[in-house]
């Protein structure tokens, strides 16, 4: 890996044709998109001024679509998308946060065994049981603290705050602050 690939100065033109990047975007390392496999067009949309910093990873399955609104920042975040993840404008996603719209394995033990066999190096991926995915939406001006986990089907409202380490399994209203595992509303207002 050369130094340019670690400073955001690599050739963004080498990204797949189904990636749309707005003006003034910054992706610190090319490897943040090494697990982007979407065949949708577009499969990834970055609004103007999106910043994706070191150790972030955007993993998108063939049918997945990720949209990140203008002025948003990811710092060491991991996005795991099978269907759709939509992040609004001016959203901050802090270090070691995970946003996953799918569990990426069945819950039933028998189906999970079949899934493991199909996904093995000598397996047949066409034999994988169907996965359950539900879109995630994160509203404009939301803030996700360090180590948060956002699970499938969640809608985080505009201006909401998710405290460090929270596991979000249910919708968060506009302007609310949530904390804990599972995340619950709190009276404490986190800083902007």
Mind explaining what this structure looks like?
This protein has 192 residues and is mainly beta. Helices cover 6% and strands 28% of the residues. The protein is globular, with a radius of gyration of 17 Å. The longest helix is centred in the middle third of the chain and has 11 residues. It has a single domain, classed as UDP N-Acetylglucosamine Acyltransferase, domain 1 (3 Solenoid). The chain has an eight-stranded mixed beta sheet with strand order 2-4-7-10-13-16-18-19, with no helix packed on it. A six-stranded parallel beta sheet has the order 1-3-6-9-12-15, with no helix packed on it. It has one helix and 19 strands.
Blueprint (SSEs and pairs):
Elements: E1 19-21, E2 26-27, E3 44-46, E4 51-53, E5 57-60, E6 65-68, E7 73-75, E8 78-81, E9 84-87, E10 92-93, E11 98-100, H1 109-119, E12 136-138, E13 143-144, E14 149-150, E15 155-156, E16 161-162, E17 167-168, E18 177-179, E19 184-185
Parallel strand pairs: 1-3, 2-4, 3-6, 4-7, 5-8, 6-9, 7-10, 8-11, 9-12, 10-13, 11-14, 12-15, 13-16, 14-17, 16-18
Antiparallel strand pairs: 18-19
Core attributes:
single chain; 192 residues; mainly beta; UDP N-Acetylglucosamine Acyltransferase, domain 1; 8-stranded mixed sheet; 6-stranded parallel sheet; 19 strands; 6% helix; 28% strand
Q: Please identify, by name, the CATH architecture.
A: 3 Solenoid
Distance between the termini: 36 Å
Number of strands: 19
Number of helices in the DSSP assignment: 1
**What count of structural domains?**
1
Q: SSE order in H/E notation?
A: EEEEEEEEEEEHEEEEEEEE
CATH class equals Mainly Beta
> What is the beta-strand fraction?
25-35%
- What fold name stands as the CATH topology? UDP N-Acetylglucosamine Acyltransferase, domain 1
Low-pLDDT runs: none
Structural class determined from secondary elements: mainly beta
Percent helix: under 10%
Report the mean per-residue pLDDT as an integer.
92
Q: Strand order, biggest sheet? A: 2-4-7-10-13-16-18-19
């Amino acid at each position: 890996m050369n130094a340019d690939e670690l400073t955001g100065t690599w050739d963004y033109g080498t990204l797949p044709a189904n990636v749309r990047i707005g003006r003034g975007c910054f992706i610190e390392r090319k490897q943040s998109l090494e697990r982007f496999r979407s065949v949708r067009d577009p499969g990834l949309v970055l609004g103007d001024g999106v910043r994706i910093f070191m150790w972030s990873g955007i993993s998108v399955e063939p049918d997945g679509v990720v949209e990140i609104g203008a002025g948003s920042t990811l710092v060491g975040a991991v996005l795991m998308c099978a269907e759709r993840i939509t992040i609004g404008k001016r959203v901050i996603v802090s270090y070691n946060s995970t946003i996953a719209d799918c569990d990426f394995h069945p819950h039933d033990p028998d189906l999970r065994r079949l899934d493991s066999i199909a996904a093995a190096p000598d397996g047949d991926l066409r034999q994988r049981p169907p996965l359950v995915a539900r879109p995630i939406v994160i509203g404009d001006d939301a803030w996700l603290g360090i180590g948060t986990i956002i699970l499938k089907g969640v809608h985080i409202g505009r201006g909401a705050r998710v405290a460090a380490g929270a596991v979000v399994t249910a919708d968060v209203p506009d302007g609310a602050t949530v904390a804990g595992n599972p995340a619950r509303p709190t009276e404490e207002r986190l800083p902007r």
